[in-house]
Amino acid sequence: MLTTAFATLFTHFYPIGNTPAVCLTQCLPPEKQAKILLLGCGDARNILFTAFSDGTHRHLDITCCDLEESVLARNILLFSLLLDSPDGIGNGVNWNIYYHMYLDRACYDRLQEQAKKLHGLSASMDTWRGSRYGTLIRFCDDGTLARVHEVWGFYTSETPEDKQSAGRFETAMRTAIQRRDKRLEPGGRSLVILTGLRSANPVGLTALEEINTLHQNFWKHGTTNMDSKAASQAGIMYANPMLVSPDAAATLHYGTEPCIGFHMSTAYAPLADSPLPQQLRMSKVEGVVASAQTEFAAWSNSFRRRAMGGLTLRMFAGDAIAFSHVLQCRHATGKADLAHWYRTRQEMEPLVLDRDDYGPAGSAPHSFNVIDTSNLMDHIGALNLLVATSPLLENDVSASLYTETLVKVEQSHHDHVDRLLFGHLPTISLLLGLLPVEYWTNTSAGCDSQQESIMDTILSGSGQSFIRTTWKRPLTHLPSSPIHLVGFDEGALANILFRVYLQMFESEGLSMLFSSLILGRIGKLSLPLHHRASFAAFLRLVKSRVAVDWDKTMTILFCHIASDRNCLMGHNYMAELCIYMHVLGVYSIDELKELPDPFPNPHGLNGDLSSWAAMPSVVSVTLKVPREKLRLFTDEDSLLVGTTPVRCVLESALDAPRREAWHQVFVAAQIGFGKLSQSGCRYSNSYQLHIVNDRLGWHGESDLFVSFLASSSDLLLEPQTARVAFGIQRTPATALRFSGQLGIELNVFETSLADAEHVYVSKYLPNQSGIMAVAGFADSGEASRPGELSQDVTASMKASVDSRTGRISAFTTRLDIAVDVLKSALKDGCPVQTAPGSSNMELTVTVGGMPLKVTFPTPVVGSGCKTRIARESSYIELIVQTPTNPALLPLASPVYTHDSNIPTSWNMPYLAKMHALPTLDISKRNKLQWLHLHASMMFSARERRLHADPSLPSTQIERTRQGFKESLFALFMNFTGLLGPKHHVFGLNNVTGGGVHILIFVSSLHLDLANRTVVLDAAVLPLTDALMPKLVLTLQLLTNYPGGICHIRVDADEMRLWRQMLPAYVERCRTWSHRSDCEYLADGARVPLSVENGQAVLCTCGNGAVPQIRELKYAAKYAVRAAISPLFPCSLVDEAYDGGDLNDDIPLPGGPPAPAPAAARTGGCLACGRDKARDGSELRTCAKCRKAKYCSRSCQRAHWKKHKSQCATDAAAAAGSG
C-alpha cells in the first residue's frame, strides 16, 4: 500500500529479458557466501550467467521475486529441463522451448510432458519438497506454489488434438503480433535498436543492422532460425504457451527478442582461444544467434554442475515492495507473520511466508549481500524501492544493491540526479543508509551511458536511458565503525525532509500544471508513483538513521507542511499523511494518540459507528463497488484504459454547511475482487471482513472492494451522512480522458457511511489481523550512543546542512578522550595531527602518538580539515567539508579490509574466472577497430575539451585523472597495435622521478561480458628498492629482447595514482587466499602499502600467481596477476560524450579521434611510441617540420598520411618565424 493503486486493464508480459545478463556475484570476494535477492527477477539469464561466471565454490542462495507468476513458472520449467538433460544434450530443444514463439511438434510435446510432470509434483508443498527438484527450488509460500501450479496447468490446457480449446494460445500470440506491428510504426524503431546495442557492447555501433534484422525475423517467423526458407517450410507450428500469460490483461511485450539477453559482442569481435565452442562461419545475423545459443549451452552446463549442491533457488510471486517489507519484518523482529501485507496491489490475499523456511528456526535468508532490482524503479519509484530494500542489505563492505532505469523521464542525466530521490542525491542517500558508488567515484565499469549518448545524438532522442547504479553501505554503517548514526540540527533535518515533500508532490502545484515542462514530463505526472504513505514510510526509515530530537523535528516539519502554498491540494491528503505517520510509528498528532472512551455521541444514534466501544483511533474503511459501475473501464478497449491511478474520498455530506465541509483523499488504497463474508459484531473490535479472491480481477464478474485507513475521529464527525467514494486520481491525462464521463470529481461510485451494503468499517483491513508493518532497520540498542573509536576514545558525528540547497555541506566529528595518559598529553599541549586515510572517506588523527582512524559516511575534502581542540575538557572536533562536485574528486578504487579481514575491492567488479572470458585475437587488427572507439569513451566531454585545449581551467586532480586515463588508453592501443607496433611489456616511466617504477606484462586481451567492456590479463611488477637486486637477469632480458619495453610516460601524481589503483586491479582477479600474515592486515597498514618510490605497493600473498609470460621467467615469483580494464566516467556526474564528431555513416571503422594519441603517452615515436630507435640511438626528427620524431624510416612512412597536413602547417610556421 506504499505505492499507488492502479486500475490495470492492460499490461505487457516480459518473459524474456531486454538487457544483457550480468554476473550477480561480481561485487563479492571469493570467500563470501552469496545471499542474493532478485526483485523483478525476470527470465533466467542472470542466474544462468552467474552460475557460469562465478569462479568460486561458494554456495549461491538466490531468492527470486516477480509480480508475474508466469515468469517464475517458465523459469522453473527451464531449470527442471536442464536438470533432466545430460550434460550438453537437449540444449537446442531447451532453447526452442524457452525462447521461441512457435514450436515444432517434438518441442511442443516435450514442453507438455515436462509441464504435466511439474503440475503433478506441485499439488502441495509436501509433494514438491519430496520431489527431485524440491531441494534446489523452494517456494517462499504456499500461494506462490499454488499460482505456479496453475500456470503449469495452463500450459497443458491445450493440445493439438483438443479441438474444443484449440486456438487459445494462437489467438493470444496473434494479438501480441498485431499490437506490436501497430506500436512499432515509424518512430518506434529506435527503442529496439538501443535495447540490442547494450547487448552488443563493447562492439556497439557495429551491430546496428543485424539487431533490427533479428527482431523483425523473430516476430515474422516466431523463431530464431534465420533461414527464412527453412522457417517458412517448417510445417505445422504450435504457439508456445511459455510466451503467453494466463492473465487476460497481459500481452507479450513488443520489444521481445531472445538474443538481447546475451552478449552479442562474441559474434562480432575476433575470438582466439575461448571456453565457448568455436562458431561456424556464417552470416553476421546467423552468427549472432549462434553466439547466443553457444552462451546458453555453456551457461546451462554450468548450471547443472552448480545445482549438484552449490545452489538454492527460492521463488516468490507477488509485489516486490510487499515482499521486501515482510522480509524487513522477519529480519527486525524474527517473525514474518507480524507484517500484515497483501501479496499484490490488486488482490486481498495476505502475504504469509512459509514457516519452515522463514520462521524463527528457518534457514532462508532475510538479509542479503547482493540485491538486484532490475528496472523496478521505473515502475514503482526510486524512493519507494530504496525504502523497502535498504534495510535488507547487509552491513558489509562488499554488499551491493543494484538499480536500473530504462525510461527516460528527465532531459539530462544531471536532471535525473536532482530528481531521483526528490532531493540532493548524496544527502537523501545518507538518510536511507546508502551510498551511490558510481556517483561518488565518477567511474563506471561499463560504457553503456556513453554509448547511448552517442546513439541519442544519432537518433535525435531515443526515449530510453539505461543507467545502472550500485549502492553500498557507508563505512560508518559497518560493524567496525564507532559511529552508526549521524546527528542533525532538528530545523535543518526538517528542512531537508520538507524539500523532499515538495518535490515528491510538485505535480499538485499550480506552477507545475501550467509549466511548459509538463509537455516533456506529462507521462510521469500521469502515473504518480508516490503518495503520503510513501513519504511516511520514508520518514520511518530516516528516524532510525539519525540522532536528533525526533518529535521536535516532526513538529517543525508539520509546521512547514501546514503553511505550504505550493501543493495546492496538499490539505486534501493531510489526513492520510497523519494516519500513516501514526500507524508506522513516525509521529502522532493529538487526535490520533487516543480516542476518549466512550466517544461523545452528539447524534444520539445507536447501531452505527458512534456505538463502537473502545474504537481504535485508526480503522479500515472498505467500499464495495458494484460490477456494473466498472463498465467505464471494462467496456473500453483495454489499450485505451491501460493503467489508470485510482483513489478513495471521504467527505462531508452534500448538504453540510460550507464552513463545516471537509474533504479527504486516500491514495494508499488496497483493491481486490472477490466474494465477501463477515464475522464478529459490526461496529466492534471483533468485526472482521473476509474476501475470497477472484483471480480474474478486472476481467471477471466479481464486485470490486477498495479498502483504506481512516481516522475514527473524522468518521465520527458524520457517522451516517459522510460520503465515501471510489474514483480516478486526478492527473493531466486522467482529467483529459475521463472528465467528460465522470465530471470534475472523477468519482466512479459514491455512497454514504450509513450504506451497510456497500460500506464496511472494521478494526483491520480485510483478511488481516493487524496493521501493516514497516520495520525499517533492525534496532541496535547502542546505535544512538557515542561509539568507541578505541578502548579509550568515543566518537560522535553531526552533519551541517546548507539551508539554501538542503545538502549536507560538512561533518563535525567529536572525539572524547577518556584515558588519563592522553588527557594529560592534551593538557600538556601535545600535537594533534590529521592525515588522509586509505580513501577519501577516512582520516587518521594522531593524538600523543596514538593513531585513530575516523570514517565518514560520504567522501570528504580531507585536505581542508579544521581541528578544534578542547585541551581542558579532553575532546577534539574535526570539521570536514563535503565535495560539491564529485567530478573533482581524485580517482579511487579502494580495497578495504574492514570487519572480516578479507581485503575487498569496493567498486571494481571481480573477475574470478578470467580463464572463462572470451579471448580476443589481436592479430586481426582490421576486426578490432571498434576498440579504438570503446577505449576513447573513457573520456567525458569535459575531459575531451581539456585535452583539446590544455589552457582551459582545471585542477591538478583533473589533470591527474586525465593523464591516468591516457596511459590506460596507450596501454590498450599499444598492446593491440592499433596505433603502431605491438608491445606486451610496458614500463610506467616518470622521466623526472627516477624512471620506470612499475612493469606491466600483458598476456592477453579479453571480453568482459558481464560489464560489456574489455580487460587485459596481465602481471604487474612494482619495482622496489629491496627487489631491484633480484631482478638483474629479468631487466637484462627485457633490454635485449626484440621490442623491449614500451615506455608509457607518467608524471609523479599519475605514478602515485597507478599505485593506488593496482591493489584493485589485482584483487578483482584473485583466485588465491590472503594469508593470515598478509601485509594489508598488519597493524597500521593501509592499502596500497605505500605510494612512494622504492616502497612496496602490494601484499605478497598472490606473488607467483601470474599468466604464462616468457619475459617473466626469472621474476614470476615477484609478480602478481592483474585485470586491467578501461575506466569510464559516470554519466550522473560527468557530461557524457555525445559523438558530436562522428560522421553520419556508421559504424565508423576507427571511431572518433582518440583523445590522446598513444605517442603522446609514450612520449616518443609518433607511429609506435618508442623512446629510442631500434638500434638504441636517439629518435630521428622529421626533416621538413623539425617537430615529429620517429624511431625508423618504416614508422615515418607508415605515419605519413596522418602527419602530412600537420607537417606542412608546422613547416610553414617554422619558416615564418625564421
TrEMBL record:
Keywords assigned: Metal-binding, Zinc, Zinc-finger
GO cellular component terms, semicolon-separated: nucleus
Span of domain MYND-type: 1165-1207
Keyword Kinase recorded: no
Family annotation (Pfam families): DUF4470, zf-MYND
A GO term, aspect molecular function: zinc ion binding
Domain of life, source organism: Eukaryota
Protein name according to UniProt: MYND-type domain-containing protein
Organism the protein comes from: Cercophora scortea
